[in-house]
Specification:
The complex is a heterodimer of chains A (264) and B (252). Chain A is of the alpha+beta class and 264 residues long. Chain A has six helices and eight strands, in the order H-H-H-H-H-H-E-E-E-E-E-E-E-E. In chain B, 66% of the residues lie in helices and 0% in strands. Chain B has helices at residues 7-14, 16-22, 24-36, 45-66, 73-89, 112-131, 136-146, 153-159, 165-175, 184-199, 205-226, 234-245. Chain B starts with 6 loop residues before the first helix and ends in a 7-residue tail after the last helix. The chains are: A alpha+beta (264), B mainly alpha (252). At the A-B interface, helix 1, helix 2 and helix 3 of A face helix 3, helix 5, helix 6 and helix 11 of B.
Chain lengths: 264, 252
């Protein structure tokens, strides 16, 4: 899969190919498959909107309806996120195979409200015979293997979180580190307020960006439905990342431990 | 990178002249579009096509180097051809050709160009809303309020997925039916508390009105970009929005 950065040029705007990809999406009705970072950027960027709209209009008479394949998008009914979905499925299956005992331990203990750090990979395999899978009332969720992969800590990002939460200049950060939240309209907030420009980026456990927004006012609500899983997030100022944190998304009602201002 | 299933990509690498030949129709589409927009005169159009061809030929090595196969090559090629057209268009004086969009004009049974323009404007309007993606649910509600369209259950859920039953019932009672008798000064104080609740903000009535107005200006600018010869105003946005909400208002 193409990384979103491949569609940008210096200054963060879409390249000609990025513009072409966006127009392909408009023509094919696959905008929901575009990288979130790209969609978020275009939603706020006059220049890129002009380029995309201008090209879309100029191609008004071009018919894309007979197209059966696209290098990026998956076409046809039930198309989901593009390109290498099979790679992620394979990766999820492999990760689940390797880490399943520790992951089940992790999930169940978190469900029970235990205060355990999710360093699953380092946890000794537990006796899983008496443990139950995640409660059925957690709402729609991916298959067990994929769900397990969603909670697999990303060692590289874990290190950044450890370093980032200690040395940050931000205060009163919401959601607090390791919070458990519901996956809709998560509230983000931090201090100090002021005229600074921030960028918020949320990554999934695989390290893929799933949400990005330029912050104009705080608090900020991430208008993105996140599935169950472990997520990392970072705050960047004009020059560099100034905070790394993580949180988990659960569909079930949060336990008393997980109650946090992110969802007030 | 996996090899894209775009046969044109192979042509680009192995036989760019054949590719250019294959894309002649595409280049004509782009050039004729700007002829229709008044950027070039009718008697210039074949010359412009040839000039674009020559310029594209010069850029083939760069295209071969930079195109990485994520988008369709024909769209990417169109982007290049369009850039060349816009660059060439700066040398010419624009001759605006106003588009007829208003009902009662030529929309019904009018000239084919007008019908095509309407279809185009409708299509571009839809594309603009897609680009405003994250803001679209909110914008849809705001435009409905601005133009006094009934707000539906789906509109509200799309904008505010966590809306409770009480809030939903209140909103539908206020704006789900005919509220054309209300004025902006009535509507905004009624709706703003719900927006604040949905977004976790504390904004004043004027903020929402200004937000809506700013998005309408963005839409107008983008329509103007799409149709450089047009002279659209908010009335066109209203018509296109109403057409989108109630299809067939603008019949082709």
């Amino acid at each position: 899969m193409k990384e979103p950065t491949e569609f940008t040029i210096t200054g963060g705007h879409l390249s000609d190919e990025g513009v072409a990809l966006f127009v392909d999406a408009l023509k094919l009705g696959t905008a929901d498959q575009l990288p979130d970072t790209m969609r978020m950027h275009v939603a706020d960027c006059d220049r890129c909107q002009r380029e995309v709209t201008g090209l879309f209009a100029a191609l008004g008479k071009e018919d894309y309806s007979g197209l059966e394949q696209h290098p990026y998008f998956r076409l046809g009914k039930g198309a989901s996120h593009p390109t290498s979905a099979w790679i992620w499925r394979a990766a999820a299956a492999l990760a689940a195979l390797i880490l399943l005992p520790g992951l089940i331990y992790y999930l169940v203990v978190r469900n029970a409200g235990g205060n355990v750090q999710p360093t699953v990979a380092a946890t000794a395999p537990a006796d899983t015979s008496a443990l139950t899978p995640p409660a059925a009332n957690h709402g729609p969720s991916p298959g067990g293997q994929e769900l397990a992969a969603n909670f697999t800590p990303n060692l590289e990002l874990e290190e950044l979180v450890t370093a980032g939460t200690r040395s940050t200049s931000l205060k009163d950060v919401v959601p607090v580190n390791e919070a458990v939240v519901r996956g809709t309209a998560i509230r983000f907030d931090w201090g100090p307020r002021g005229e600074r420009q921030w960028t918020l980026v949320i990554m999934d456990a695989a390290g893929q960006d799933v949400y990005s927004a330029r912050i104009k006012a705080l608090p900020h609500r991430a208008e993105k439905k996140l599935g169950e899983g472990l997520y990392y997030w970072k705050v960047l100022d004009e020059q560099e990342a100034v905070y790394f944190g993580k949180f988990s998304v659960r569909e079930a009602a949060p336990s008393p431990r997980s109650t946090n201002p992110a969802q007030k | 990178m996996s090899r894209p299933p775009d046969p044109d990509f192979e042509l680009l690498l192995k036989d760019p002249n054949a590719l250019l030949l294959k894309y002649q129709g595409l280049i004509q589409t782009i050039v004729y579009f700007y002829v229709d927009q008044g950027m070039f005169s009718l008697n210039q159009k074949e010359d412009i096509v040839q000039s674009v061809n020559l310029e594209v030929l010069k850029r083939i090595p760069s295209i071969q180097q930079h195109f990485n196969g994520s988008a369709l090559l024909k769209t990417y090629f169109s982007a290049i051809a369009r850039n060349i057209c816009l660059h060439m268009g700066k040398k010419f004086v624009m001759k605006p050709i106003p588009l007829q969009l208003l009902p009662g004009g030529d929309a019904d049974g009018g000239h084919q160009t007008d019908r095509y323009s309407i279809q185009q404007a409708r299509s571009v309007f839809g594309a603009i809303l897609v680009q405003l993606g994250p803001y679209e649910p909110k914008l849809r509600i705001c435009l409905k309020l601005r133009y006094r369209h009934p707000v539906t259950h789906e509109d509200i859920l799309h904008w505010w997925p966590e809306c409770g039953n009480r809030e939903m019932n209140n909103l539908l009672a206020m704006f789900g039916g005919d509220y054309r008798h209300l004025e902006d000064k009535d509507i905004y104080p009624m709706i703003v508390p719900y927006f604040n609740a949905a977004e976790g903000k504390v904004s004043g009535n004027d903020a929402l009105r200004k937000w809506t107005a700013s998005k309408i200006q963005i839409i107008l600018k983008l329509l103007q970009t799409a149709f450089p010869g047009s002279n659209f105003d908010e009335e066109v946005v209203r018509i296109l929005f109403e057409d989108r909400s109630s299809p067939f208002l603008l019949r082709e």
